[in-house]
């Protein structure tokens, strides 16, 4: 079972999310929190695989809680859930190590899919959030980011660059392995090595670096 923590200051929102997630046979909502501080403390004391954090919460907002959980409970994969789709929120969430970003008007099945992806170690961005990221990558600042990303990728081997290019496509370890004719375990080893070399906390950050650097997907 995927153990989930839901943090939102609105009881009805928490109840709705719980109802959606527990409709899936492989997901169990094991804890709830009313604010970011309570979410961090709950994650410390409760076995949790995935945390859904609202951005706008009292005491401590979701983005601050995300950063705190990254330090206190790095085992927990965090999805940011919000009604606000501003570009800065998306990029700040990814920069703090979020496993994904969802808008509250996402379809129920999308929420379930995102939790499963996060629990599997993959990244998930809602289509709306993806548009914000793409828009930002196309901005003038992308030139500076591209130069920095290419500098960081310079130390990767050819095979590591192939694997990274598939992370940039959003592929799972299994799918990347099938594309490159490698086992899932081998891809996982490569991903760990890539994250260490690039000084990235997670796959999302590495994928964004690949996009910034203009790394082309492998033809397989």
UniProtKB/TrEMBL annotation:
InterPro entries: CheY-like_superfamily, NreC/VraR/RcsB-like_REC, Sig_transdc_resp-reg_receiver, Tscrpt_reg_LuxR_C, WalR-like. Residues 3-119 form the Response regulatory domain. The modification 4-aspartylphosphate is found at residue 54. Residues 149-214 form the HTH luxR-type domain. CDD domains: LuxR_C_like, REC_NarL-like. It comes from the Bacteria. It holds the Pfam family GerE. The keyword Methyltransferase does not apply. Keywords: DNA-binding, Phosphoprotein, Transcription, Transcription regulation. PANTHER family: TRANSCRIPTIONAL REGULATORY PROTEIN NARL-RELATED, TWO-COMPONENT RESPONSE REGULATOR. This is Response regulator transcription factor.
């Amino acid at each position: 079972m995927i153990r989930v923590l839901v943090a939102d200051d609105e009881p009805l929102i928490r109840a709705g999310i719980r109802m959606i997630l527990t409709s899936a046979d492989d997901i169990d909502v094991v804890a709830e929190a009313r604010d970011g501080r309570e979410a961090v403390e709950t994650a410390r004391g409760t076995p949790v695989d995935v945390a859904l954090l609202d951005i706008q919460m009292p005491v401590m907002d979701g983005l601050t809680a995300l950063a705190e959980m990254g330090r206190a409970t790095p085992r927990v994969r965090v999805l940011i859930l919000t009604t606000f789709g501003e570009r800065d929120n998306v990029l700040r969430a990814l920069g703090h190590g979020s496993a994904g970003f969802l808008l509250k008007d996402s379809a129920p099945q999308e929420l379930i899919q995102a939790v499963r992806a996060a629990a599997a170690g993959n990244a998930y961005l809602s289509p709306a959030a993806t548009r914000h990221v793409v828009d930002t990558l196309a901005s003038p600042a992308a030139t500076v980011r591209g130069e920095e990303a290419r500098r960081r990728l310079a130390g990767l081997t050819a095979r590591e660059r192939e694997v990274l290019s598939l992370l940039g496509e959003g592929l799972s370890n299994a799918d990347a392995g099938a594309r490159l004719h490698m086992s899932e375990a081998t891809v996982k080893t490569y991903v760990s090595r890539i994250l260490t070399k690039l000084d990235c906390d997670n796959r999302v950050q590495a994928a964004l670096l690949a996009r910034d650097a203009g790394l082309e997907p492998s033809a397989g």
